[in-house]
């Protein structure tokens, strides 16, 4: 898989530093801060993957081009690692599920086909005045954050903005980044972009697993309803005569 190739640790620190135009000591600092997670050889030598190189280039972009402070970069990379991990976790789960389905299909024992349940935190319920009061912000600030893509409120049938509990959580996080951690708006935009990507990836992959389960369940149901459906080779129907007993 392409993902596996990107995760393979292949570059020693000197080569990795050259690829991203940084000093090796900078890479060591970023590792201590938890911004990157290089692998180790059997001799404990740091080895960097293509994914690590991508992360280092992203750190350079955030710090040099967007002026994001270290607190903002740490949050961006934490979310990026979480996104990477959940992608890997769900890919592994899908492979496991497909293998389980293949091994159990002959016996007709299938996993549950229940799909994911909608999260009540995503239900849009608060008008802008209530949402602003809940997060101690001015309604105009919420409108600005929406234009910047930092939050994505729903709309009523009359086009009134409606905010969910998840939106409220996002707004509180934005306030923490800007007021407590001093992250600039460019950094907050990157953080929220990754948050939306993380939530979207989780929902998409959960749906994919549900779709696989439903598809297999439907196929097995259709197979059982076929008129010529028969037991697997090498088994006997309860009413079948024993081939070793001869009629007199």
TrEMBL record:
SMART domains recorded: HTH_MERR
One GO MF term attached to the UniProt entry: DNA binding
SUPFAM superfamilies cross-referenced by the UniProt entry: Putative DNA-binding domain
InterPro entries with a match to the protein in the record: DNA-bd_dom_put_sf (IPR009061), MerR-type_HTH_dom (IPR000551), MerR_fam (IPR047057)
Pfam families, sorted: MerR_1
Protein's UniProt keywords contain Coiled coil: yes
Residue span, HTH merR-type domain: 10-79, 125-194
Positions of region (Disordered): 225-248
Coiled coil (residue ranges): 76-107
Alphabetical UniProt keywords: Coiled coil, DNA-binding
Keyword Heme in annotation: no
Name of this protein: MerR family transcriptional regulator
Origin species: Deinococcus aquiradiocola
